[in-house]
Amino acid sequence: MARRGGDHLVVAAIDFGTTYSGYAYSFRDDIRKTPLKIYTNQQWTDPETNLTTFKTPTSILFDNNRKFKSFGFAAESDYKDLIEDEEQEGWRFFRRFKMSLYREMKTDQAGGEYGRPQRRLGRNLKLKDAQDKRMSAMDIFSAAIGFLKGHFLSALENSIKGAKEEDVHWVLTVPAIWSDAAKQFMREAAKQAHILDHQLTLALEPEAAAIYCKEIFIKTTAETGSSKGLSVFTPGEQFLLLDIGVDITCHEVMIDGTLKEIHPPTGGPWGGTVVDKAYFDFLQDLVGEDVWMYFMKEYQSDELELERMFEMKKRHLKEDAHTIIRVGLNLMQSYTNVRNCSLEEMLSAETSKYFGKVQVKKEKLKIQNSLIKEFFLDPINAIVEHLERLFRKRSMDHVSTILMVGGFAESELMKQKIESSFPGKDVIRPVDANLAVLKGAVLFGHSPGAICERASPRTYGIGISVPFNDGVHLPKTFHITEGRKMSTDIFQVLVKIGQPVIMGKTKVEHVCSPSNSNDTMATVEVYESTVESPRYTFDPTCRKLGELHVKIPDTSRGKARKIVVVMHFGFTELKVTATEEGTNNKAEIKFDCLSTS
Question: Is the pTM of the predicted complex or chain greater than 0.90?
Answer without folding.
Answer: no
